[in-house]
Design goal:
The chain is an alpha/beta fold. The chain has a single domain, classed as Rossmann fold, CATH 3.40.50.1820. It is 38% helix and 19% strand. Strand 5, helix 6 and strand 6 form a beta-alpha-beta unit. The chain starts with a helix and ends with a helix. The relative contact order is 0.15. InterPro entries: AB_hydrolase_3 (IPR013094), AB_hydrolase_fold (IPR029058), GDXG_lipolytic_enzyme (IPR050300), Lipase_GDXG_put_SER_AS (IPR033140). Keywords: Hydrolase. One of its GO terms (molecular function) is hydrolase activity.
């Protein structure tokens, strides 16, 4: 893990420098999703489709559909598209769990707003539900994608619709306003994120909603009725503080909730798929799918 954190820290972070983000992002070229590695074409059975006029890629285990279907929302602060690092993470999840995994390549801010993203998530869910049923669907994702996994479940619950069997957020972004100043204490150890920049991105994502809107910021939501949840979180991540608060709130609302913390883990440490901690995460995901505990 230390080696992985060092490697991440050597790279320039797209998530640091609030003034730089405000000055540059609104004038950037149209962002493009990182292409799926060509070797995946022979490693998995691949489906490409669209939902709400946005691309979706589904990876099935070679030779057939998985028993479970994970809908996986990639991270990127809502303003970055699919990273090249996300593809190995998704592949490792397929290998470890035997599940089929659908990846919505959703619209990002500030070029778009949340409405089209939620519309895509809903269409993807309904399409997967038609083949697997709610009882074999898990919603997952990292960082902003962890937020989307939870938000999708909240929106479906509030609309009186059926819910997935599992929620599996990786290092979820739970508060667009990053109100808990305790995150400042972790900030010096976080090689990727900083509070002030997150507040800029959070305002872009919230858009015309207050920062504490319970869907934009699930930390403030009524969590009752949600399915069993397993949250995976590194301790060198400014989101650690809110993950602990959120997990406690979920348990108080009667939601079976596990929070698995990894010492020294940077933000979305499971993308460092070669580490012992990432492999442990994937094994725990498989166990959670099978047992709900």
């Amino acid at each position: 893990m230390r080696l992985g954190e060092w490697v991440v820290g050597r790279q320039e972070s797209d998530f640091k420098g609030a003034e730089k983000l405000q000055a540059n992002v609104p004038h950037r070229p149209a962002p493009v999703d990182a292409p799926m590695p060509e070797k995946f074409e022979t490693r998995f059975d691949i489906e490409r489709w669209t939902a709400a006029d946005q691309p979706v890629v589904t990876l099935h285990p070679k030779g057939g559909k998985g028993e479970w279907h994970i809908i996986y929302f990639h991270g990127g602060g809502f303003f970055l598209p699919m990273f090249k690092e996300h593809w190995p993470l998704v592949a490792a999840m397929v290998d470890a769990t035997g599940a089929s995994i659908s990846v919505p390549l959703y619209n990002v801010v500030p070029e778009h707003d949340y409405r089209s993203v939620y519309a895509q998530a809903e269409e993807v869910y309904e399409a997967v539900k038609a083949d697997w049923g709610d009882e074999r669907i898990a919603l997952s994702g990292d960082s902003a994608g962890g937020n989307l996994a939870i938000a999708t479940a909240l929106l479906r619950r509030d609309d009186g619709k059926s819910l997935p069997a599992r929620l599996i957020p990786f290092a979820p972004w739970l508060d667009m306003g990053m109100r808990d100043e305790a995150a400042r204490g972790i900030e010096p150890h976080d090689v990727m994120l900083e509070v002030d920049s997150l507040r800029v991105l959070g305002q872009w994502w919230a858009h015309d909603r207050p920062l504490d809107d319970p869907v934009a910021s699930p930390l403030y939501a009524d969590l009752s009725g949600l399915p069993p949840m397993a949250i995976f979180q590194g301790r060198h991540d400014v989101f650690m503080v809110d993950s602990r608060t959120f997990a406690a709130k979920a348990r108080a609302a009667g939601v079976p909730t596990r929070l698995l913390e990894y010492e020294g883990g940077p933000h979305v440490f499971m993308a460092l798929t070669f580490t012992r901690e990432a492999k442990d995460t994937f094994a725990e995901v498989r166990k959670f799918l099978e047992t709900g505990a």
